[in-house]
Amino acid sequence: MDNVLMFEFCIDGKFLSIYCGILEDNHFAYAFFDGKSASRKFLRGECRLFKYQFQALENIFTPERLRFSLYGEVGISCDIKITNHSKFQSNRGLANILPRNVHIEFISQLSEFVGEVTINGKTYQVNDWGYIHRISTKRLPDRFYALNLLGDNVCLASYMASNAIWIYNFDSFLTAGTIGGQYYRFADYNLSTISVIDDGNHLLVKLQKGKTELNLCAECGNEQFIKYNNRIIRANNYTKADVVLNVGNKQVYKGSVSASLLINGKIKVGKDVETSKFCEASVLN
User: Fold this and answer.
1) Minimal CA–CA distance to 144: which of 130, 128, 162?
2) Which residues pair with 186 in a beta bridge?
3) Using CA atoms, how far apart are residues 128 and 80, in angstroms rounded to an integer?
4) How large is the average pLDDT for residues 66-90?
5) pTM above 0.85, yes or no
6) Are 70 and 79 contacting, i.e. CB atoms less than 8 angstroms apart?
7) Are 24 and 41 in contact (CB under 8 A)?
8) C-beta of residue 208 within 8 angstroms of C-beta of residue 191
9) Is a pLDDT exceeding 50 seen at residue 31?
10) What Cα–Cα distance (Å) separates residue 190 from each residue in 134, 193, 214, 241?
């Protein structure tokens, strides 16, 4: 299976998003900042790929170090040291055993990124927080979303993709992280349910496990369109998402945080998605 690593952290209040690895025989590294991209493709012989590391010529992408130079709409050079402060690592046990077409692993949900990033000649001294994820897949799913949220009281990742086990097709999902210092996980393998709709302006996600209900509402405006192997992926690496968390009849958290978002295909999951009071977060001030 192919292997893609994703790194995201904040620079001057905006996300720098980095994707690298091997997918559908392409060896690549992409970076997105403030609606502009930089990228580079490599030959197979120029790369070394391990489970948690990708090295291509002089470029290094690991959970401990980022050092690369990429070019495109902007030029981005990076030399960053990374320290993992996260106590949690998702995608354990059953999720790893099943022979799925797509696996998601959260290597770190809360890492400290310290170093220097230069974008179009402007140098930023970075000392901020971010996360590292790994996607292992046979091919890019026909439908998926990847939503990552980072704020003072929220560090959360939410993924959903069309998936398969042998001949069975289903919608696989995993949402995990901390809200108000408490860890939560919703997944297709732990008796959670999901409803999702992408109306073009917002991505609305409703997750439920027992008495715990999480509503997410992410803005889809100011998107960039990424062409990849005859697909159009919608990307927004600096947007906002509203979050409402209810446990029983008690509202535990309600707020708005910074977010990044990727969408491929038209997403609609859940029979009551259009008729229910889907996302209370969308009415936040």
Assistant:
1) 162
2) 175
3) 11
4) 85
5) no
6) no
7) no
8) no
9) yes
10) 20, 9, 15, 25
